[in-house]
Each structure stands twice: as structure tokens, then as C-alpha cells.
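User: Show me a protein chain along with its predicted structure.
Assistant: Here is one chain, sequence first, then C-alpha cells.
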Amino acid sequence: MDRFPSGVTRYDLLDELSRLERASRFDETERNFFDEGPHLISSPELPWGDEVRHLSVAAYERFIHGETWITGGGAREMENDLVAWMGGLLGSADPAGFVASGGSESNMCAILTAKQLAGRKGGSLVFPDNGHYSLHKLCRMFDLDPIAVPAPDGHLDRVDPAAIEAAIRPDTIAIVATAGTWAYGSVDPIAEIGAIAQRHDLYLHVDGAFGGYILPFLELGGYHAEIPLWDFRVPGVCSISADLHKNGMAPPPASTLFFRDSHLLGLAKEICPPNGTISGTRGTGPIAGAWTMYRLLGTRGYIEVARKSMSMRDELARGAAAIPGLRVHPGSLINMTLIHSDELDLRPVVDHLRARGWMFAVRTVPGPASIVLAPMPHNEGQAPRFLDDLADAVAAAPALTGAEAVGAEKVSSYGF
């Protein structure tokens, strides 16, 4: 067939697809330090990386035509398998939950469940002001007042439990805490916040989009001397979101929402039938891709992947801290590093690095620009090159004036 009904030829279409792939920079994935997708690559530590990634994508393709309503029996079985495995690792004796489209949907479903439990149409939601932007979005959607509690002065990554408790109002329906805070990689004091939630008979949701699929494996692998309790081992925790398409290594879109027990999942299904998800039609491809990743890696494989990601994080953090004028923000417990400066304006540095092909996130607090890196296995071998380019760019960076530093603090913390 030379031409399709539209007049486009097969070769024209393939050429256009190649152009669009390059426009999306898919051919430079290894230079992307803040990516979402199947991140595995073979290396000395992960000799099976490429094969696992290929099989996960192949499973996605095999199930790409399906949805979970009618033809989804196999996908629902995969979903239940995933939830039972990971929910158990997160400390639930009665794992319950589902695969969602992303961290935003998982957070939304959790708070809708809290509303159902509270029996309120409106109310308020309390969370640290460095919480994910979806919390503000869902408050607007669900008629809730967002009560964003500021971080202690000089400690942007921290949360003061006393301030969280002081922010609670009579109409508060839930508290949200974070395990793997954007952009600091920190973990909120969830045990203390859990006790507060119990004292006030409030629902506590933990946003573990970034931390959910790495913190358990760092703990099991003994990477950290001590990771503070943050999961269902904290009695007050009712639900936990965790993104498979981040540290779960699965093809997007795929997040998971876990409930402490099947009763809470039942409440989610009451308000969002039949699955508890906001989306009614759910593709089976993402579920199959995520399930395949889990089946091939297992707990042992995820421990090795977590160590690999953290080794690159440590390499980047050490290298950046050794560059005069740069600071690495403290407090990260996961594969996330925030690089900033009290002396230099990093905006030209950002431009220089991007001109050299590097992809990463930029934050306006600390201001006027900070660099956020979340290395994963696909970044194998890139850290030395990035650090060389970073050092070159910093050497030419202008001094930071006091007005620039202070003014930037007023910019939205969601600036990229």
C-alpha cells in the first residue's frame, strides 16, 4: 500500500514519528535526570536491566488494547497481585488498593475517601506547604480549604508537627504528609503526625509518589542506618500513594494507592465506583507493564535498583558539594538532590547546562534558581560529564545580590 486514505505514506509517517521522537528528546534519555518511565538499563550492578525493561514494555504492548471493565480480568488479577505484594511491604495486614493514572489521581482518591469517611461536603485539608501541587488542585475541585503549613524558618525540607496540629480546624477532614518531598527528598515526621491524626480522629494520607518505591527497599537493603517510620506501621496512617512510573521503574502512567484495610477501599468505591478510581475506563497496558516489572525484579531486584539509584545520587551530591559556591540541600533520604547557592546566581548555569543537552528540574526556592536531580539507572555513566559541565558553568556564574535571593522566596514553590 503506497498511501493511506489520508494521503500519507508509511515512510512519511515513520519519518514524522522519528522527528517527533527527537523533539521529545527520547534519543537522549540517558541525559535526563528527572524522568518518568521505565528507567532500567544493564550495568555491572544490574546486568539484567535492559531485558527487564524490554519485557515490561512488551507486556504493556500486549495489553494495550484492553480496559478493566469487560476484558480486564487478567489485568485485575495483576493489580491485586501488585497491591498484595507492595501493600504488605508497606506494613498492611490487609492490603487493599488499586493502580491509578498518577500521583495526582492517587492523592485525589485518598482525599475523596477521607471526605466519605468524614461525611462532609466541604471542610479543610491540612498539609505542609512543600506538599505536591495536586493538593491545591484537589482542594479547588472538592470544595476544601487548603491549609498549607509553612516550613520552619531556614529549614525548607522540614515539617513542624506542632504547627500541623495548630492548623487543624473543626472542619478539617484530613492531614497529608509526604515521604520523599519534592524537591528535597526528605520524609516528614509521619509518626508524630500520625499521633496527631489519631488524637483528632482525622484521616492521614501519606504522599509517597517519589519515596514509596524506594524507601522500603533502602530499609530492607540496609542502605540507611535508620529510616523514620512513615508507612502503615504508623497507626494513624490510612492511605499511601506511590508512583510505579517513578522509582517503580514501570512505563507511565502508573501510580498506586494503598489503603490500610479493605474497609477504606470500600469507602473509596462508594464515592468512585466501581474501582475507587476517578477514571472509569482504565487501560490494561500500564497495569501489565508494572506487574511485569514487579514479577521480574521482585523485592531483591528492587533493593539492587534502589542501591544503584542512590549510588548515583551520592556521586552527584559529593561532586556538586565540592564545586566552590555550590551547596547541596540536606535532608534527602531518597534519590533526589537539590543543588543551590547562597553566593551565585544559578539562572545562567541552568541555561548553560540545558544548552549542553542536560535535562533536569529547576526550582525557584531556594532562589532565584536551584537544580533538582533525581538520578535513576538509565543515567549510568552520566554523572562525571554532568559535573564537569556544572563546574564549567558555575565558574562563570555572576554573584547573587541580596535582593535577588530575597525576592525569589516569594515565587511559587512549584516553579520549574
